Amino acid sequence: MKKTEKILKSELAKIKSIRRRTGEVVPFDLERVARAVFKAFEVTGEGGEEESQEIAKRVFRMLLDLRSELVNARKGAKFLPTVEMVQDFVEKELMKNSFMDTAKEYILYRNKRSELRKAFGPVPETVKLAV
């Protein structure tokens, strides 16, 4: 069983989809968040799999909190997180948990990818699968 699956399935069902930068709506994958954090930890050596899973769970809880606020403020409102939103939350959680070098690497990586998207357009699907 994947470690992020320890979050109750009823909670996981509350956020089913995410909007990519292209506007495409795809299934939300918490493991993908954990993998991205783990890759950043591999660069810095500040953490490992356990820490990446914990950061991913905390990001998910932040999304749930934001969803609750939105739904409570506007009855019947739909919540669809974006890739940018999730990445912003990852940065905040890394800094909040004193993984400063990892947060810096994560931010630099995001900026580099942003520049590449501006220069060359969207990242091909085959490259996305590597992340």
TrEMBL record:
GO MF annotation list: ATP binding
Ranges of residues in domain ATP-cone: 16-117
InterPro entries: ATP-cone_dom
Pfam families linked: ATP-cone
Keywords, alphabetical: ATP-binding, Nucleotide-binding
Highest taxon, organism lineage: Bacteria
Keyword Nucleotide-binding belongs to the record: yes
Entry protein name: Ribonucleotide reductase
Annotated organism of origin: Candidatus Nomurabacteria bacterium GW2011_GWF2_43_8
